[in-house]
Amino acid sequence: MIDEGTIVSIFLVVFYLFTFPLVIVGFVWLMRKWMKLHRKKQAFQRVIQSGIRSIDQMDGRQFEYFLGQLLKELGYRSVKETKRSNDFGADLVMEKEKKIVVQAKRYRYKQGVGIQAIQQVFAAIPFYQAQEAWVVTNSFYTDSAFKLAQVCGVHLLDRRRLQQFILEVNPKMTAQEVYENVEPARRNCPLCGSSLVVRSHQEITRRFFGCSSFPNCRHTEPLNAS
After folding, report:
1. Which strand ranges, in their side-by-side order, compose the sheet holding 132-137?
2. Which keywords accompany this UniProt record (predicted)?
3. Of the residues 18, 93, 212, 221, which has the fewest C-beta atoms closer than 10 A?
4. Residue 208 is part of which domain span?
């Protein structure tokens, strides 16, 4: 006969053999959940601190201005915007030990930047007598764009790298300030041809374009429509 003490000992051994692995599995699961939540919190903080959401609302001209100011604070000289039309593939031209041409692509979130941007900025190198070319976007790049950039030696800065870039520099003029104070590029109403003007409303946090012939024409569009 097995005495009561032996039975209790066997029960405890079996209990620990089955329970301990479950405790370990549960602990690992909780740690993974915590790390995932921590990474999400860090990503959210980067979004807020970098002002990337304000960049998403900018038009192309505002984005170019913001990048220009950012690069100046990094010590790049002669940072200048090229003409809006006939820019020969570069939106910004800058110098720091060597001349660099930059193509700025303010796209809608998750709209992939394709090979055309790579082709344009690569063609700008000989025109501006530059030694390097960059493409900077608030979005991401297509696989084709990555492949072509590697072959052409074009440097790509996507949304994540741009956020890191901003956080490292901590610019004096934030993306929000640029969005609120720098005038976007002029454009005309697609319905009546009148000029569009920047408007805002107390109940609307985002600035927008409205037709100057209002109330005869009630066309509106976001600043980042182009």
Report:
1. 77-81, 92-96, 98-105, 132-137, 155-157
2. Membrane, Transmembrane, Transmembrane helix
3. 18
4. 196-225
Last residue of a domain, one of 17, 33, 50: 50
The DSSP symbol for 202 reads T
pLDDT in tens, 114-162: 999 999 999 999 999 999 999 999 999 999 999 999 999 999 999 999 9
Q: What is the DSSP string of 72-111?
A: HHTT-EEEEE--SSS-TT-SEEEEESEEEEEEEE---TT-
DSSP annotation of 223 reads G
Kindly state whether residue 186 falls inside one of the protein's structural domains: no
User: Is residue 190 domain-resident?
Assistant: no
* pLDDT tens string 23-54: 676 666 666 665 665 455 555 455 456 689 89
Strands 92-96 and 77-81: antiparallel
For residues 176 and 102, membership in a common domain is answered with yes
Tokens encoding 9:
């000992």
First-last CA distance in the chain: 88
Q: Does residue 96 sit in the same domain as residue 10?
A: no
